[in-house]
Amino acid sequence: MRIDHIGIACHDLEEKIALFERTFELTVVAREVNEEQGVKEAMLHIADGEGGGSYIQLLEPLSADSPVGKFLARRGEGVHHVAFGVPDVSQAMEQIGAKGVRLLDERPRHGSMGSSIAFLHPKDVGGMLTELVQAAEGR
Amino acid sequence: MRIDHIGIACHDLEEKIALFERTFELTVVAREVNEEQGVKEAMLHIADGEGGGSYIQLLEPLSADSPVGKFLARRGEGVHHVAFGVPDVSQAMEQIGAKGVRLLDERPRHGSMGSSIAFLHPKDVGGMLTELVQAAEGR
Q1: At B113, phi and psi to the nearest 5?
Q2: What pLDDT, on the 0 to 100 scale, is given for residue A49?
Q3: What DSSP assignment string belongs to B34-46?
Q4: Taking CB atoms and an 8 Å limit, are B23 and A101 in contact across chains?
Q5: Which domains does chain B have, with CATH numbers?
Q6: Do A127 and B54 touch (CB under 8 A)?
C-alpha cells in the first residue's frame, strides 16, 4: 500500500535527528526504546498515505552485539531496512511466505508506534532487509 | 513531500522485476535506459502521493565501471539510494546546500519518467545516498 519507512542505522540518534530535522525539515513524531530489537529509535514524519504514514526511522543500537550494532560494525551508517505498509500483516506473511520468500519472524511482533511487523529474508527480496508493517488503528 | 522511490541495485533486471511483481504484486510502469547514469531500470508503482508517486526502482548497470556496477562489486545487491519527492528540485538543492550538505550535482539532471533530480553526498545525510526528485508535470 505504501513505503512505510526507511530504517537508517546510526551511531548517535540525537545527532542524526538534528541532522534530518535541519536538512529535510522533518519532525520527530515518536521516540521509543525497543529492548526486543536492541534499538532506540525515532520516527520522522514525511507524508500520510493509505493505511498509515511514511517515515524516516533512525535507529541507534543499544549494544554492539544487537543486529543493528553488528550492521554498523560491518557496513557503517546507512540504510538498514525498508518497510512496506500492508493492510494485514498476518495475511501478508502467509501470502508472501507461500511464494517461497523466507520469513524471519514466525508471527508478527511489535514495531514502532503500536504497529505489527514482520521481516523477510533479504536474500529472497533482492538483498534488501524488508519489513512488513500493519500500522496501529488510527495512525 | 513523499518517499519517491527506493533504488535497488541488481545484476539481472528481468529476474528482479519478476521477483518483485510476484512477491509484492507490484506492476512495472516504466522502463528506461539512462546512458548518462550507466543503468537500465524499471519503476514499479506502489502508491500515489503529493506531487507524484512512490516506487521501487530496480537498477542494472550497463557496465562494471558505472557507479551502480561498482556498488554491486563492493556491496552486492541491495538498496543503492533513497529518493525524496520535492516540489522544486532547484529550490531544494539551494536550500539544502545552504545547510552545508554537499550536492553531487551542480544542476538538476534527467531522472526516471521525465523527472528532474539531484543527488546529495551520502556522508552528509547519514550514510545514505539521497536523491531529490521533482516529478514531471502530471505524474
Answers
A1: 55, 40
A2: 87
A3: ETTTTEEEEEEEE
A4: yes
A5: 2-134 (3.10.180.10)
A6: no
